[in-house]
Amino acid sequence: MLVPVKWLKDYVNIEDINTRELADKLTMSGSHVDSIEEVDKGVSNVVVGKIEKITDHPNADKLVITNIDIGDDNLQIVTGAKNINEGDYVPVALVGSKLPNGMKIKKGKLRGEISNGMLCSAEELGINSDLISKELKNGIYILDEAYPLGKDIKEVLGLKGEVIDFEITPNRPDCLSIIGMARETVATFKKELNIPKVKINNEVDDIKNLVNSIEVLNTELCRRYYTKVVKNIKIEKSPLWLRRRLIESNVRPINNIVDITNFVMLELGQPIHAFDLDKINNKSIIVRNAKEGEKITTLDGVDRKLDTDMLVIADRENPIAIAGVMGGEDSEVTENTKSILIESANFDGRNVRLTSRKLGLRTEASAKYEKDLDPNISELACKRVCQLIEEIGAGEVVKGNTNIYENKLNERELILRPEKVNSLLGLEISIEFMIDTLNRLELKSEIKDNKMFVKIPTFRNDIQIETDLVEEIGRIYGFHNIKSVPLIGSLTKGGKSRNREIQDYIKNSLTGMGLNEITTYSFISPRAYDNINLPGESLKRRNVEIMNPLGEDYSVMRTTLIPNMLDVLSRNYKYGVEKAWAYEIGNSFIPKSLPMNNLPYEIKTLTIGMYGETDFFYLKGILNKLFDLLGTDELEYIVEENHKTFHPGRCANIIYGNYILGIIGEIHPDVLGNYDIKEKVYMSELDLDIISFITKLDRKYNELPKYPSITRDIAIIVDENILAKQIEDIIKDNGGDLLEKINLFDVYQGKQIPSGKKSIAYSIVYRSFKKTLTDEEVSNVHDEIVSNLISELNAELRK
Fold first, then answer.
1. SS3 labels along 432-455
2. Closest among 613, 617, 798, 633 to 724, alpha carbons compared
3. 498-694: which CATH topology?
4. Cβ–Cβ under 8 Å, residues 5 and 19
5. What pLDDT score does 564 carry?
6. Residues in the chain with pLDDT < 70?
7. What is the pLDDT of residues 698-727, one digit of tens each?
8. DSSP assignment of 92-129
9. Which CATH superfamily is domain 710-797 in?
10. How many Cβ atoms are within 10 Å of 415's Cβ, its own excluded?
11. What is the dihedral of CA 100, 101, 105, 110, to 10 degrees?
């Protein structure tokens, strides 16, 4: 928020306060200052001059020689400007003057002719070219009237003073105005607020004779609609004082009517819009939601397509403005305008913000409206516009108004306990100081029964509870004046939950095995389930739909992390990454019922995905090692043949006791085709909540064995469809206490092995922790194992 100090002084007497002090103290009271800028930006020794004569330069076609009267002297200045004429009043930089761009003017010659100074453009005077009219952008700044010759240009153009740039927080829309910052200044410096009295001296005719009807069809989005009419409009350039106020506030002057509406918006914080009344069909206004696909050409000349969520101001046929954002080109005030309808409305902030975002159109008005303005300033702002139009003779104000305001916003009252103030601030502030502070903030307060009853004006919607009032007192007292003291209280030791510790342990373990952690969005496209070949009846297709998705690709909450992992692997594969090993820990979301009545189940899931330098058994080895570290190494891998995401015959469920922990396998070629991956991918998805439940982080250590082990090898021929697990289960069941370890070291099919058979060989380690084993003791156990393998699996010992 740019606040010219000169403008602020119109409402608060701060002549005795320099700008630096003003900025510092307002910052300490809560209005943070971003910067202070000098209006003149370093202009010195530039005066008003009159062009008496212009002659051609004898040695240059593009230069002319001017004779300039500056009052007490007549100067010869050479210039290349094309927009000057004899009799023009112009800014003249004298020899020795300085300009904002760092230029110092010296006496010199241009192509042989003496030049004693320079004629200045607006930009050379430090005036932003975006804030001046088109005719003054390219050339010398031609003054609009005859000013005293030789007078300092800073006085003529008002190039004196400073502008303070305040950072206004979103909860204080009342401070997005000069009057709002004047209130803060009054409270901070204990001054009096002098708000101009709004009075219209002469009103003519009647609004009923000029406007047929005004309707508001959506009073939720348009909380108040206030209008007045001005006729016999004279569109002219604004007075210099008005143009300077706007330029210092970084607003470009346009014409007297538009400039006044902008002036009042800056002064009071209420956006105003003026319609050319003669361009409004049937002289009727309807505030309504736009029709789907309806179009409007806005003031910037752009055709914009609307939807039904947007609020528009319309006549009987078409929209003439987008409510709270920008007016339409068809009802624009032009030099031919004779009557105007002044709109001072209050629109729903959220709707204005969403409309502005959809259209990609952010304006000064929308920036204010989206913060939810006070509807009670609408009438004052409209009348202030009329007052200024009358004062500068730009038109005649018509008697009467339209005021549609169904749900009036009234002042609220809060109770404030003095002891609560001192308790929270750690001070001993007097009740008198509290009441005085609140009253200076226009929070009218009185004390009853040792309680303060505070009336909250409607422009302070940020004050909702008692502690908000405590903050107001604290900031005016000065938080920097509150002495810092050590905290008093007991502290408890924080720590991670068991589940979080297990997750961190898993992450560290997998990272140590060479995998990279990834993080993906929790919402996916419904097409992802088709990509991984999920059957139509699969429970994992029952998902949570997002009400306001970013797009179809992010419209449902995931029930599995496999599509996310495949997306990441596919992206790496397309980028030419030869090897990608990744894991992700994230939530999958399973609805309790559809349609949704309750929050869904959130299942913590671990997904591992790999391609390059790997195979099924490598991934299985990673899982075995991980579960060994988690103290749950007695896993079973049971063949799974019905999971369509995985290759048939190369997929298994991971079982621990009565728990199904997840699945492991090679991704189906059809699925890989959907992700444009031409290499085998191995993946596992695990229920981390169950894993956390069965994890045993406590470690039990045994002493090193005192007695030697005996190793026996066994090679058997079995049917090729016999699983290694079936053989290992028989060995474990019959090995008794002496069995220490089983190692599979060979699987063979080929010569010397009958068709349909395979040879499988194990190394079996026997050991007793009580004594040294004899061959006979080991042979008895070993023979028992062999006997059961032969009888149960129809195995044959290979010799």
1. HHHHHHHHHCCCCEEEECCEEEEE
2. 617
3. BirA Bifunctional Protein; domain 2 (3.30.930)
4. yes
5. 96
6. 134-135
7. 878 878 889 999 999 999 999 998 988 899
8. EEEEEEE-TTS-B---EEETTEEE-SEE--TGGGT--G
9. Ferrodoxin-fold anticodon-binding domain (3.30.70.380)
10. 12
11. -140
